[in-house]
Design a protein that fits this description.
The complex is a heterodimer of chains A (332) and B (365).
Chain A (H helix, E strand, L loop, with lengths): L1 H10 L2 H28 L6 H26 L7 H15 L11 H24 L4 H20 L4 E2 L3 H8 L1 E2 L2 E2 H19 L1 H11 L1 H6 L4 H27 L1 E2 L7 H12 L10 H21 L3 H19 L10
Antiparallel strand pairs in A: 1-4, 2-3
Chain B lengths: L1 H42 L3 E6 L5 H17 L3 E5 L4 H15 L3 E5 L7 H11 L2 E5 L15 E6 L2 H15 L4 E7 L5 H16 L3 E8 L4 H15 L3 E6 L2 H13 L8 E2 L5 H9 L4 E4 L2 H16 L14 E3 L3 E4 L3 H10 L20
Parallel strand pairs in B: 1-2, 1-3, 3-4, 4-5, 5-11, 6-7, 6-8, 8-9
Antiparallel strand pairs in B: 10-12
Helix pairs in contact in B: 2-10, 3-4, 5-6, 7-8, 9-11
């Protein structure tokens, strides 16, 4: 009798396994459909020039999305995206050849900025782990601190970046794409390698799947969390470098509005906010959906006042399609 | 049983009362320094207060510098209040400073939102402080209804300057071609007015076609994305880009640069921030309008200070000095260098006693 029920339990999920796999492909299907739809209305969409422009628009959200994915996979959330990005952009603009002071550190400035990103991320992790402050609040705090320090450093002014190396990320091209796009691609590859081939990557999934279980099986939850937040901080700093390269300046407003796009892209891609499901590739698709949609709405001629609404409908559709309802007992 | 419960009740009551006593004592202690400072403030020169949205944008940062410069010129204490886009905070901070100074204050405020102006003015009137508002106030709130405390309201009409930039752009394009336009937040009055001004310029130049108008919410990031999409959609048809502020204009220039077309397609902005003036000098932007926030931050206080110190009586001043449009400076390639030298390279030297020098007519509602 008990054997029979056990067998029933193990057999039961099978019919849904196929559906679940299908749901995993939903965001990609949405992306493809979206591209087809836009291309039918405006064939220019598929021109090489536009593909390059979409990649340019995607490069910053891409690296930010990668960082945020690592955190969301653990079931945490990271709101410090804008803070780290702003701080990185402001510091970079002050340290490389610029229009406001005599600094000219070049590549060394990039190293400093990445280290600051790692530092802020590490602080996020330590506040979260040792002070037991929920990641939501800890990173909310560092968000404001990051923007605040950016403000204090520049006093509200903008600094123009004149360093040819940094500006080259947005202007100089390799195989038709700006160098910044290749930097973003490199970030995707590194993140994929970390996710799939390192212990840290597997542990991040383990924490998202069930932190108590992960701790019981010998994973040092504290180390994993701090490492993940640090890594995410580095990716946000890369985002800051790319953003300031793109706009050719650093100011304290450079981050505004980017957190929302980042979290949207991660979730639309199919990474679950409760952790454990999803990954870097899903985020790549999510970012492309968001960027293609923004680009496409202009090309198709959607009324400006309607655009934000279309974005909202898109978010709900993409998430609704990719959710595996059978696994969810409670929806909060 | 009943006795016992009485006992616990009374002991609870006593403890609650002692807590209340303690709180009262603390409160009394707390008011002491407040009373002392209030006296000190009330006797000296008025405290000069600028209330602005934030210090993280160049516009308000320069506004703040102007306020500090005026305060220094008269040797008064200077305080900056920042709303961070929060109306409640903005009003509460002003009430707090009114209480702290006992009303011996001159307040120059850029209200976060139009409705905020009324409680701010009412609080200033009640405290006996002098207030000047800029940009935002309800149309039916007038300085002359709060004599003498509500000294003046200053605004800038977006229409003539949106039009001036449209004309500068069309001139740079050689009088014909297609343009695209980046607007500010749709429900925002300056955004609406500047767009209306652009439309007037377009109506007067039938050879110029508006290819598309997009809302980029005053944001550089959004402007970059929209301009990128336009470069795909319209390509070489784009002869010029009009933007409702400088942040968006500069982003449009960068989108053009990534496309190898910066300097070839003229771009105009509005606000006159430093980087935009430099872009005009480089020939990448065709124009911008300087509101001169340095003047706004300093002169708003100077007008209030003049009323407070009896230089003029607001109640006897004409309406064209109570609710007036300020004067913007249209910057194009012709005057960019001289503007840069006098306003950017060195701190502007303004005559703070020339309080009506830039009043250009009563505001029309």
């Amino acid at each position: 009798m008990s054997n029979a029920t056990a067998a029933a339990v193990t057999v039961k999920p099978r019919p849904f396994a196929g559906l679940q796999r299908l749901a995993g492909w939903a965001p990609l299907a949405v992306l493809v459909l979206l591209c087809i739809l836009i291309a039918v209305i405006n064939p220019n969409f598929l021109s090489f020039g536009n593909v390059v422009r979409i990649s340019q628009s995607a490069m910053v959200p891409m690296v930010l999305g990668i960082g945020a994915t690592l955190i969301i996979l653990m079931g945490s959330v990271d709101l410090s995206v804008e803070g780290v990005l702003t701080l990185a952009a402001v510091l970079l603009s002050m340290l490389v050849l610029n229009g406001a002071n005599a600094n000219e550190l070049g590549l060394f400035a990039v190293v400093i900025v990445l280290a600051v990103g790692a530092g802020v991320g590490c602080i996020n992790g330590m506040i979260n782990v040792y002070l037991k402050v929920p990641s939501f609040m800890a990173t909310l705090g560092t968000w404001f601190i990051g923007v605040g320090v950016g403000n204090a450093l520049l006093g509200g002014m903008a600094i123009r970046i004149n360093d040819p190396l940094i500006r080259g990320l947005a202007i100089d091209r390799f195989l038709g794409f700006p160098w910044g796009v290749w930097v973003a691609v490199l970030c995707v590859i590194i993140a994929l390698a970390i996710q799939n081939y390192t212990r840290l990557g597997r542990h991040i999934y383990a924490l998202g799947g069930g932190e108590e279980l992960a701790a019981l099986s010998g994973i040092s939850v504290a180390k994993v969390r701090i490492a993940a937040f640090t890594l995410a901080g580095v990716f946000y700093a890369v985002g800051g470098i790319l953003a300031s390269a793109q706009l050719g300046l650093g100011n304290a407003q450079i981050g505004s509005g980017r957190l929302f796009t980042t979290i949207t892209a991660v979730v639309v891609g199919g990474t679950s906010l409760s952790g454990g499901r999803g990954g870097i590739l899903q985020t790549v698709v999510g970012v492309l959906i968001v960027v293609v949609l923004t680009n496409g709405m202009v090309l198709v001629g959607v009324e400006p006042s309607v655009q934000i609404g279309v974005q909202g409908v898109m978010i709900i559709t993409a998430v609704a399609l990719s959710i595996n309802r059978k696994l969810m007992k409670i929806v909060k | 049983m009943s006795n016992q419960s009485d006992g616990t009740n009374s002991s609870r009551f006593v403890s609650r009362r002692s807590v209340l006593k303690g709180a009262t004592a603390l409160g009394v202690l707390g008011t002491f320094p407040a009373i002392i400072t209030r006296r000190a403030y009330a006797q000296g020169a008025p405290t000069l207060v600028n209330s602005i949205r934030s210090l993280s944008n160049p516009y308000h940062a320069t506004w703040n510098k102007g306020g500090a410069a005026f305060a220094q010129s008269v040797g008064a204490e200077y305080v900056t209040l920042v709303t961070e886009g929060n109306s409640e905070k903005g009003i509460a901070d002003i009430r707090a400073i009114l209480a702290k100074t006992g009303g011996n204050a001159v307040i120059n405020v850029d209200p976060n939102d139009s409705p905020d102006a009324r409680p701010i003015v009412e609080a200033a009137k009640q405290a006996g402080a002098y207030v000047v508002t800029q940009w935002n106030k309800p149309a039916d709130l007038h300085p002359w209804d709060f004599d003498p405390n509500y000294v003046a309201h200053i605004s800038f009409s977006g229409v003539p300057y949106g039009k001036a930039m449209g004309e500068a752009l069309i001139k740079a394009m050689g009088g014909k071609g297609g343009i695209v336009a980046l607007g500010g937040i749709e429900s925002n009055v300056p955004a609406y007015e500047r767009r209306a001004g652009l439309q007037q310029a377009l109506d007067a130049n039938p050879d110029v076609k508006l290819l598309d108008f997009q809302v980029a919410n005053w944001s550089a990031n959004e402007a970059l994305e929209k301009t990128n999409a336009w470069l795909t959609q319209f390509g070489d048809q784009i002869g010029g880009i009009w933007a409702a502020n400088d942040d968006m204009a500069l982003a449009a220039v960068e989108a053009l640069r990534a496309d190898g077309r910066a300097g070839k397609v003229p771009v105009t902005g509005v606000d006159g921030i430093q980087l935009a003036v430099e872009s005009v000098l480089k020939g990448e932007m065709a124009g911008t309008v300087a509101w001169d926030p340095f003047w706004q931050g300093g002169m708003g206080l100077a007008i209030g200070y003049a009323a407070k110190t009896g230089v003029f009586d607001p109640a006897k001043e004409g309406k064209e000095h109570r609710e007036f449009y300020g004067t913007g400076v249209v910057i194009t390639a012709e005057n960019a260098q001289s503007f840069y030298d006098t306003n950017v390279k060195s701190e502007p030297q303004l005559d703070w006693t020339d309080i009506w020098g830039r009043a250009s007519g009563q505001i029309q509602y």
